[in-house]
Design goal:
Shape: globular
Largest sheet: 2 strands, parallel
Mean pLDDT: 88
Strand content: 15-25%
Distance between the termini: 28 Å
Number of strands: 2
Strand order of the largest sheet: 1-2
Radius of gyration: 11 Å
Structural class: alpha+beta
Length: about 55
């Protein structure tokens, strides 16, 4: 539904390795991150995903 759309703000919760471990999960995270036009907020508890480094 959001294909090709961009949003003023995108909030992505719980960005940790345990939640984004498969290739499909990683692709979905990439798509979500690239949809933010002005503000991107990522939340995590303890350690953030290695994908953010």
């Amino acid at each position: 539904m959001a294909k090709g759309l961009e949003f003023d703000e995108v909030i992505i919760p719980q960005v940790a390795d345990k939640n984004y471990h498969s290739e499909i999960d990683q692709s979905m995270l990439y798509v979500a991150v690239t949809r933010a036009m002005h503000r991107l907020t990522l939340t995590y508890c303890r350690e953030k995903s290695r994908l953010l480094y």
